[in-house]
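Cross-posting from the modeling subforum.

Setting up a comparison between two proteins and wanted a second pair of eyes on the formatting. Protein 1 (sequence, then structure tokens):
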Amino acid sequence: MPSTGSQPSANDDTNIFNKWSRKFSVVTGLGITEEDRLRELETHQNNVCNRWKKELMNHSPAVTFMLKRLEQSGCPVAPKHLSCQPCGFDRSGGFVPSAGITILCQGKFWSKTHMEHTLVHELVHMYDQCMFQVDWNNLRHHACSEIRANSLSGDCKWTRELRRGFFSFTKQHQACVRRRAVLSVAANPACPDVATAEKAVNEVWDSCFPDTRPFDEIY
């Protein structure tokens, strides 16, 4: 009995072979110049980043919640405001207040869940900027937003900390939030040293850590 479905053609097999041959060359560097390999790798990373971004913006409960709250607050976020780019620093993302965009560092995400946590983190910064007009050169302002973003985004879930090499059963979440907030504030050009960053985080901790807006509780 003849099949009613379409059969793979020789062209299909050739296209599949060429696709995987190209991927093999990009991964191994064989049969391709280093310049071409890096260009192909950057294109691949950008495609993955944008595909995951689209999926998260449409289907992630935490991301869609934040997008809805930002829109209701008068600061709608479109895909163009979340830019997948290569980054020259060892971070997965960053908010650029002067441009009103978040940079998603393509190639820095080990999973879509990691990207989801990063995206929610940066959306919390965007929410704070929208609602409270944060002065990012004011270390106390910056510290408060970092405390909230690290606490609410999923960045400090136990599994994330375990992957980073931090293992604790007592007050793990608070310790992670505090540590990561200090690191971020210390990287602020307006911050002279880590001790100053720690001081800023400590000064706002009691008021900012319990503040889960716009969530009802820690995500």
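Protein 2 (same layout):
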Amino acid sequence: MVQRRAVTAVLAAAALLVTAGCSSGDEGTTGGGSAFPNARSTEPGSPSSQQSAEATPPAKGSVKVLRTVTEDLDTPWGLAPLPEGGLLVSSRDKGTITRVDEKSGKKTVMGEVPGVAPAGEGGLLGIALSPDYASDHMIYAYFTTASDNRIVRMLYDEKKPPGEQLGAPDTIFKGIPKGMIHNGGRIAFGPDKMLYAGAGETGDRGLAQDKKALGGKILRMTPDGEPAPGNPFGDSVVYSYGHRNVQGLAWDDKQRLWASEFGQDTWDELNQIKPGDNYGWPLVEGKSDNPKYHNPIAQWPTDEASPSGIAYAEGSIWMAGLKGERLWRIPLNGTKASAAPEAFLKGKYGRLRTVVSAGGDKLWLTTSETDGRGSPGKGDDRILEVEVK
């Protein structure tokens, strides 16, 4: 297993305290480790007795990198495991989707997504499989065009030659504002089979508090791109607002939605998402005493996170840090952190972009050294198989 750089400091007890934020440049380079107290729970019908009845993960966890699955990826961003085996990975700058054999590491370019216009933090970003993938073989993708960010779906036909396996994109949703920064980009189907998308505010802070704007939001829609039934603002795809740049979405074993969010200069956040709630940006960054704003469950000072993807496994949220170059574990008890977050892999593999459950105690983890803000070395970028506890 290749290590990109030596660890510059022993992971000390301070790394068990919650910390980490990200600068206004968002996807920046290297940091420390510590944590912040739990926020109040705003989940209705979640009394402390219910939370205490839930299984609580141990205060201390562990991470073991089992192997490097594949190397030499170009700006990997989205990652989607196929039920029949194989990992789909999107290239932000090339606009391609590649299938990786998770056993041999062999890479097969499935095709290029037409209309992708990579620039800054934009390009081909998140990907997700249709909830009916077994029958329809549809792949969803979020990407930046010359005019907006949009979500499309494409038929995957592995019987066709490499490079020609993606069908023509069917645009299901468009008009999400784009920018050189803060394009959001993470998409995921929830337990309700609705499609959720993190949409950044593009650097235009006012969008986040405007309920009619699509930027600075978490969006929820049907697989056809229509406002999902039960959304909080009537005939709108807006699910929550007051976000700066959400790039991580995951559900726990109680079907609660969690999201990671880039802060500006002070606090990055892990939030438990409630429909219709206001998460404060740009009026609040991190925790607030104002009950109008939903407080984060955990927050990190600048340089220790710049969080992108998150996944749920073994009772904890696992959060990939770009600038922080580490994998954070946030153990949960209901809608609160049950112990201080822990940092793992600090500085060993560089910037970490996406983390996805591989089932049980395993995760898939991608690096992000070729995104223009890293220091790529031999083999970058790569997918790692990780065992967590």
